[in-house]
Amino acid sequence: METDLCLESSLWVGNKRHRAVLTGWHFKWTEVDKKNRDKKTVSVPVSEVVGVEEGRVEILPRKSAEDTDKDFTVFYVKRSSSGGSYGLLWRLGRIQFSCPSRALRDQWTKQLRTALKTHSPLRPHKLLVFINPFGGKGKGRQIYHSLVAPLFELAGISCHVIVTERANQARDHLLKKDLAGFDGVVCVGGDGMFSELLHGLIGRTQQEAGLCENDPAVTLQPCPLHIGIIPAGSTDCVCYATVGVVDPVTSALHIIIGDSQPLDVCSVHHASALVRYSVSMVGYGFYGDVLAESEKHRWMGPLRYDYSVRFVQCFCTVVYLSNRSYAGIVEYLPADPLFSSPRDKTRCLSGCSVCSRSTERLFPQSSESGSLYSSHFSQLSADSEGEWVSVEGRFRCVSLTCMSSSCARSPLGLSPSAHLADGTGDLILVWDTHPLAFLKFLHRHTSTQDQFDLPFVEVHRVKAVRFSLPKNRDEEGQEEARGASVGTDEEERGYVDAIGRVDSQQHLADGTAGRDQTGKQKTAAPFLCGLCCRKPPSESVWNCDGEILPFTEILCRIHGQLVRLYARGIEDGAAIDSCSQEIDESTARCSRY
Ligand SMILES: Nc1ncnc2c1ncn2[C@@H]1O[C@H](COP(=O)(O)OP(=O)(O)OP(=O)(O)O)[C@@H](O)[C@H]1O
Ligand SMILES: CCCCCCCCCCCCC/C=C/[C@@H](O)[C@H](CO)NC(=O)CCCCC
Ligand SMILES: [Ca+2]
Q1: Mean local confidence (pLDDT), 142-159
Q2: How far is residue 443's CA from residue 448's CA, in Å, rounded to a whole number?
Q3: Compositional bias of type Basic and acidic residues: which residue ranges (predicted)?
Q4: Centre of ligand 3 from the C-alpha of residue 282, in Å
Q5: 236 CB under 6 A from ligand 1?
Q6: Residue 202 is part of a domain; what is its CATH number?
């Protein structure tokens, strides 16, 4: 029986007869017993079929075991529980069918391939892959070649692979080299590598559109190429927050099937110039201090990036430097409270309705051009959704995040109800408080306890934030912050350069923030060293997605859905349970693989 893309017939899996059905959207097969009763059904969305091959095919090692002319093999996405993380692990499922005739086999393979093309328009054909050989535990190359490349090959994706030899190579390549023919760009590394791709792609897109990135009021052009992340870093926060698990095979499968997840991006400006882009965290005070501490430990080599080391540092920072608070003026432009709230206890999951409504609001179909991306945001100055609000005081930390920023140690993240693609960010103000109270706030990030339900914490959903230092600052404190009172060795002078207060020639948007001429991060810690600092510094530094910013006074603006990832947001485990791929008819019970 055949209508359009529909096909139904009996097929054999081993010696068991199955009724296989391909409708427009699903491919399913049901075991049928000798009395023609339905037993178990497996249903796979066509969009999650990875590939169809003639014969009985195995991968790893790739071989066609018995290439009979009546068999075909279907590879598809199979879910399994992640055992701790919120999302689901994806694995490669494989099923081998035997047909009564070669003609029927050819009909099935042809029809399945046509259905794939129709229902997965964003599947990549050609990818540009950057591997950071030093990210995380230095396993990037191994992860790519053993786990990812065989899957890409199976899916017929051709890849141009570049193993980076220096920091910022991937960013520079994307800014300058010919990208024609590529559907997407993939990084094998951590948040730092993702950030390189982010800067390269956004910069390239604006250059080509003739837009000025320095102007925070300009509506930036969304990037046409998708970004894929194969996690091989230490924190992998962007991967965790957009997929729900940190797993190279899961991420490779999301890339293969052409999943598409828009992502908000925050541009950070100083004195009318772009400094950097951020997706996960722009944090002053505590988070800046943790990063500065880890930069101090460069001698530890890659170990300093180790996840647990960072969190131990985090713990030590809070205990050891427990009396640090910083004066500042925070101004913010609130988002419309009718759409959502950072305290509404919702979570942005795959298919999030808040993000979908935001897509319509951010990109209304323009009748003039008909282009999805042609409309403009309201300008920052002429915003109709509220007035700037200003607060001044002493803060333990000030953080802005465009998404939840969840990671393995903090499974709900900095702001558990933040959305990936709603065009807003969450501003978290932690006012000066007792060290133990601050520790309690931090500790709540590691559990399901509400970190915002504390009297010294505020959270606001915003579209823009400005941070400045109070005008009547104590001059002595400023000198200390500049490093003048913490010693005179070369390293300390280097830091002064790195934060841009002495080196007035430093470029703002060339991506060299905090790096020397060789691209190496400059040492940024001495002013934080509790051992040699007699007085606490009056200024902290900004941590922008793991990089220290060279300026303290900044303006941040959220750009809704500026980039797209090969991801789909965090899948709700409970919802998957109720519409499982495998349906056991005899027990009428749903089960998950
Ligand atoms: N070949 C290279 N040599 C030195 N540094 C590199 C090279 N390639 C990339 N980098 C830089 O290394 C930095 C860290 O890499 P990456 O983000 O992959 O790992 P990580 O820091 O361990 O992970 P995370 O950012 O998730 O904590 C990035 O900022 C990137 O610019
Ligand atoms: C008592 C101790 C409890 C510890 C709980 C700490 C709370 C953790 C909240 C999670 C914050 C993750 C934000 C992500 C930031 C990334 O863009 C960035 C690059 O990878 N990572 C860091 O800067 C690394 C920054 C590490 C910060 C801890
Ligand atoms: Ca957001």
Answers
A1: 96
A2: 10
A3: 471-482
A4: 13
A5: yes
A6: 3.40.50.10330
In this prediction, residue 318 carries a pLDDT of 67
Point out the least confidently predicted range of 40-54, 197-211, 264-278, 321-335. Answer: 321-335
Closest-lying ligand to the alpha carbon of 187? 1
Ligand whose nearest atom lies closest to the CA of 137: 1
Mutate to test the pocket of ligand 2, among 195, 239, 314 (most ligand atoms within 8 A of CB): 314
Q: Which two tokens stand for residue 61?
A: 């090692």
Instruction: Specify the higher pLDDT residue, 547 or 380.
Output: 547
Structure tokens belonging to residue 538 = 């009056």
* pLDDT over 90 percentage in the chain: 66
Q: What does the alpha-carbon distance between residue 48 and residue 120 come to, in Å, rounded to a whole number?
A: 9
Kindly list the catalytic residues.
Answer: 191
Residue nearest atom 11 in ligand 1 by C-alpha distance: 167
- For atom 12 of ligand 2, the residue with the nearest CA is 405
DSSP secondary structure code for residue 570 in this structure = B
Q: In the 8-state DSSP scheme, what is residue 151?
A: H
Which residue's CA lies nearest to atom 12 of ligand 1? 167
The beta strand positions in 248-317, using DSSP E, are 261-270, 273-278, 282-285
Q: Is residue 566 part of a domain?
A: no
| 359 Cα to the center of ligand 3, angstroms | 12
pLDDT at 535 over 80: no
Going from the C-alpha of 145 to that of each of 228, 502, 545, the distances in angstroms are: 16, 45, 27
* Inside any domain, residue 527: yes
Contact 150, 247 (CB under 8 A): no
Q: Which residues make Cβ contacts (< 8 Å) with residue 211, sequence separation at least 6?
A: 218, 219, 220, 221
pLDDT value at position 59?
A: 75
Residue found under tokens 């003039």: 368
184 Cβ below 6 A of ligand 1: no
Co-location of 161 and 39 in the same domain: no
Mean pLDDT of 28-34: 94
Q: Which two tokens stand for residue 82?
A: 């992640």
Q: How far apart are CA 40 and CA 362, in angstroms?
A: 44
Give the closest residue (by CA) to ligand 1 atom 31.
Answer: 167
In ligand 1, the atom with minimum distance to the C-alpha of 189 is 18
Please tell me whether residues 132 and 86 are part of one structural domain.
Answer: no
Beta bridge partners of 71: 98
Has residue 276 got a pLDDT over 90?
yes
- The last residue of a domain, from among 259, 284, 313: 259
Please give the residue range of the domain that contains residue 536. Answer: 276-344+385-503+521-561
Contact 48, 111 (CB under 8 A): no
How many other β-carbons are positioned within 10 Å of the β-carbon of residue 384?
6
Say yes or no: 131 and 253 in one domain: yes
378 DSSP assignment: P
Cα 95 to middle of ligand 1, angstroms: 39
Q: Are residues 113 and 202 in the same domain?
A: no
* Best mutation site among 278, 311, 403 for ligand 2 pocket (most ligand atoms within 8 Å of CB): 311
Least confident residue range of 301-315, 321-335, 421-435:
301-315
